[in-house]
Amino acid sequence: MTLDPKIPAGPIEQKWDNHRFAMKLVNPANKRKYHIIVVGTGLAGASAAASLAELGYRVTALSYHESPRRAHSISAQGGINAPKNYPNDGDSVYRLFYDTVKGGDYRAREANVYRLSQVSNAIIDQCVAQGVPFAREYGGLLDNRSFGGAQVSRTFYARGQTGQQLLLGAYSAMMRQVGLGTVKFYERREMLDLVVADGKARGVIARNMVDGRLESYEGDAVILATGGYGNVFFLSTNAKMCNATATWRAHKRGAFFGNPCFTQIHPTCIPVASEHQSKLTLMSESLRNDGRIWVPKAKADKRAPNQIPEEERDYYLERLYPSFGNLVPRDVASRRAKEMCDKGHGVGTTGLAVYLDFSETIKRNGQAWVAEKYGNLFDMYKQITGEDGYESPMRIYPAVHYTMGGLWVDYNLMGTIPGLFVLGEANFSDHGANRLGASALMQGLADGYFIIPYTIGDYLASNKFQKIDAAGPAFKEAEASVADLTKKLIAVRGKTPVDVFHKELGRIMWEYCGMGRNAAGLKKALELIPALRERFWEDVLITGSPDSFNQELEKAHRLADFLELAELMVRDALLRDESCGGHFREEHQTEEGEAKRNDAKFSFVAAWEFAGTNRTPKLHKEPLKFDYVKPSQRSYK
Amino acid sequence: MSGTMTITLNVWRQSDRNSKGRFARYTLPNVSPDMSFLEMLDLLNLDLVRKGEEAIAFDHDCREGICGTCSLYINGRAHGPLRGVTACQLHMRTFHDGDSITIEPWRAKPFPVIKDLVVDRSAFDRIMAAGGFVSVRTGGVPDANTIPIPKPVAEEAMDAAACIGCGACVAACKNGSAMLFVAAKVSQLALLPQGHAERQQRVEAMVARMDAEGFGACSNTYACEAECPKKISVTHIARLNSEYLRAKLI
Ligand SMILES: Cc1cc2nc3c(=O)[nH]c(=O)nc-3n(C[C@H](O)[C@H](O)[C@H](O)COP(=O)(O)OP(=O)(O)OC[C@H]3O[C@@H](n4cnc5c(N)ncnc54)[C@H](O)[C@@H]3O)c2cc1C
Ligand code: SF4
Ligand code: FES
User: Fold this and answer.
1) Contact B55 A543 (CB under 8 A)
2) Where are the domains of chain A?
């Protein structure tokens, strides 16, 4: 199998237009003959379901949530990018394209990124027309703010709830179609397998989470918009239910997995407080604009922060990066915090935190000034920690936040199984080795509103589809394999609940495949993970019946997949013997400790093919070419 | 960090929609004040599973107060004792060693119990499908800045749009009314020019669906506003009423 990204010919500005013209169309009367299954109704899935139904396709949408409005997209805070250039500060489609390729440390496909940038302006128009209440200026026009990795203000926002408002917009568009009967929505359904017949993706098997029954859904194409896999680390800023099951099971049916080791770690999160911690909370990185980050110079210094005199503090980012100071990019800030804690300078009861100190800004501008700008973040901090960030410095620590890797897709967003399309965070496509802030919401909606409606039509019009029956052999086989897996999980009847294994997996991943990675550690993880997986299959204890609402069983299915995906992430990290973006191989750093790419050897997408459980997966490479944005080394000194 | 606490819990257990439920009593030692309320339930569930018992089912996801999934009725109050705080943001430091806490699901006819503390709130989705949208299709919309909206109007629309659809307003209301939830959406779209073309059909369709789902009437007790974790104001109910009246008059 050769990997063909199907990048259209022509200059980058014209690729998408040319391609749209070249693609086949399904005539309006025929659209209703096609049935499309959409798994996942976050930003990417809800926008796709709505747009496809508006065109006339029959759509069935599934989600493990009770409503599309609950998807993880709802919790995005900061904003969404678009190069409208409303502020007249020099933005353009080309600049957003350039920033994204560079921000991704030259590991993304130029043609996809350019298209993303091209369609992003229309997203803002669409959302406003739906009634999304973006922030406005006094003149009534839309307001913009700046965000990491860009020198222009191109981020649209709705208070600290941008993801919520965008999702409610896409959800309302989708619910309109549900009301019209063109989208059938099935809630509390978890896809547990992909059905491939005649070499094409033709349906899914889902578990009805209320009564435990397995259900078959057949169609002419399947869209996965099932989000990212950050929860492989157990602790992350992702919602608790986020998981990789849909993508992983599709992977096991033949879909290649792209760049699994590319994960993003966000520097400003509220640190772990206790061993019972169930998830981590992100605080906007805008805090780094006015807060100073430091640790005590002495190791294991247990004094209260206010009792540590100025000369005994190490403002390490300002020391290491005199010109960027506290505003270095996400990956650099995260890595340095870990390094300080590893050396014993960490603060708080766990020693895994650094101070983010506003005292100087408060002294200079007053508490009211700080409260106006960041009040909601200080409130949130207090809510969670019970401490007042105005009185003594806040404690922060990096946390897993986003996964750039995902199922490999070509320019049409189709995976290596014909008829399987992958949208949003679930695919690997646009962010390379590091995603810029406010670009995930943009990508999810670009995929759903403006790309898939075109590319899926071309696929449907260019292929013949045999009639498929949910009672046929392909569905029976898939259903039996899911039923079998459930039976095996329940039958273990060991002594240890699912979460205990998940936490252990998280610890391994964080230690060996987190912010800093090296060959020795990765090799160790390659021993630890299969051993843990074995213990899981010998000792997991799931109570309750499989034929009823059973959250322990749900978690067990998801963890079974994380335990396999984790190993692939580690393999990928080991293979990528260079540092780039969020992937920091300690062996490859500059003298100053910065990430050192190796373009000669690693300018490719690693796409992994499943070869069977407990067998080494097969690597395929998609070479990356940079015709427009020439790779260079980042420096923040 | 102070020492740990021992908490007694009275938790509603119900196997499925059609079974009869009952309260079960659990004593949980080693509760740390730093734990969130849901982490306390996680801890209890670990114990229960280790003992071979079924875990307590409860809905949750973001654990940050934004997804609207958590839905616990704690000591007789939707989302527990703190104003403007969802159950998932509540921390155990709000309670004391030796406290006894009663946890129930949302109780309202249109929200049948699925299991234990999990209820079915799909009635809210059906109300949304009836009219909670602006009928625009993807593509072909005007440039975003061709519709100027005065900042105060945009802000007020955003206040309404902040609703997380949790259903606490319904659970808190003695009539089981969904007026605050419906009003928040009607009000958001009535305030914005984009929503004007359909304001008449929207309010009628949403109210009709709300009634058909079996939600009760509003008798202005304002329990909804008091328990709403997003502090959605009852002034939106006033706007809904005037929208409704206006629709009926036209
Ligand atoms: C705290 C936080 C803040 C963020 N802030 C920003 C920001 O400011 N700007 C920005 O651009 N990005 C931000 N991001 C990233 C962004 O929110 C996500 O990448 C994006 O929303 C993902 O959207 P999605 O549609 O791909 O997936 P999701 O929203 O995760 O939706 C996944 C959907 O798939 C369904 N699903 C999954 N698996 C299955 C299955 N097996 N069966 C059935 N259904 C399934 C789920 O039910 C859900 O409906 C943030 C992320 C976090 C964690
Ligand atoms: S109005 Fe408030 S209580 Fe009611 S659903 Fe919305 S957020 Fe929840
Ligand atoms: S779990 Fe999301 S609001 Fe409580």
Assistant:
1) yes
2) 267-400, 485-599
